[in-house]
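To the wet lab folks,

You asked to see what we're planning to order before we commit. Fair enough. Below is the target structure as tokens, and below that is the sequence we designed to fit it. If anything looks off to you, flag it before the synthesis order goes out.
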């Protein structure tokens, strides 16, 4: 099955070539779509040189719009039968692709979430960030009657038809709760697998902030009642 890897990017000049190298090394990506969301650190210059090589397509946002906007642009451009969202910051490892893809390939899932909290290896860091993630996941489970362990994971893999007719509006990090809410309301089969996780802290360039948690709460509440 043809796999489209969608990579939203903002100011990742130090990491972009490495993540592309790791994705290509899996030999699983049929196409790689990188959406630069208005980077100002030289990332765009690197991507312009790589565009069109080895199945790589680069899309440039002229202004920074947010991760959700970049992901939505990538989803619209993806042509594969399966779509995988890959962050560019090296927190998530493409070595986990086989495990992420297996439940879809064997027919047990429509969507797979790579969970950071199911016992996979991970760097020890950022306690309060973990607590915020767990609280948002707990809220998701209460509102939508489910048992997810990691709603906010950046690793989401799904069949192309899952997003057919789905209206996605999030521009920032509220993409995760919006997408999850709409999956659950449509009763798609979601499967979780453990992944490795190497989180960076804010001094290393982490971008998600406390205000994004409040936006996630609002998204979970809003999409419980509207589509």
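Sequence we intend to order:
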């Amino acid at each position: 099955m043809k796999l489209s890897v969608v990579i939203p990017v903002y100011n990742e000049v130090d990491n972009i070539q490495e993540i592309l190298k790791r994705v290509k090394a899996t030999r699983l990506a049929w196409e790689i779509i990188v959406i630069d969301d208005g980077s100002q650190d030289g990332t765009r210059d690197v991507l312009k040189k790589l565009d069109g090589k080895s199945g790589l397509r680069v899309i440039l946002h002229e202004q920074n719009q947010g991760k959700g906007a970049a992901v939505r642009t990538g989803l619209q451009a993806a042509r594969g039968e399966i779509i995988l969202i890959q962050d560019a910051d090296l927190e998530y490892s493409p070595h986990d692709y086989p495990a992420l893809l297996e439940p879809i390939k064997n027919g047990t899932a429509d969507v797979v979430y790579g969970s950071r909290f199911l016992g996979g290896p991970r760097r020890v860091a950022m306690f309060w960030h973990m607590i915020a993630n767990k609280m948002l996941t707990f809220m998701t489970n209460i509102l939508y009657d489910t048992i997810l362990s990691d709603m906010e994971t950046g690793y989401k893999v799904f069949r192309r038809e899952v997003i057919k007719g789905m209206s996605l509006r999030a521009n920032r990090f509220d993409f995760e709760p919006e997408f999850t809410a709409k999956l659950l309301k449509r009763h798609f089969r979601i499967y979780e697998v453990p992944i490795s996780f190497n989180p960076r802290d804010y001094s290393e360039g982490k971008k998600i902030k406390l205000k994004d948690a409040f936006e996630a709460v609002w998204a979970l509440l809003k999409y419980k009642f509207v589509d």
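Structural context that might help your review: The first strand starts at residue 3 and ends at 9. The CA atoms of residues 18 and 90 lie 8 Å apart.

Thanks,
Computational group
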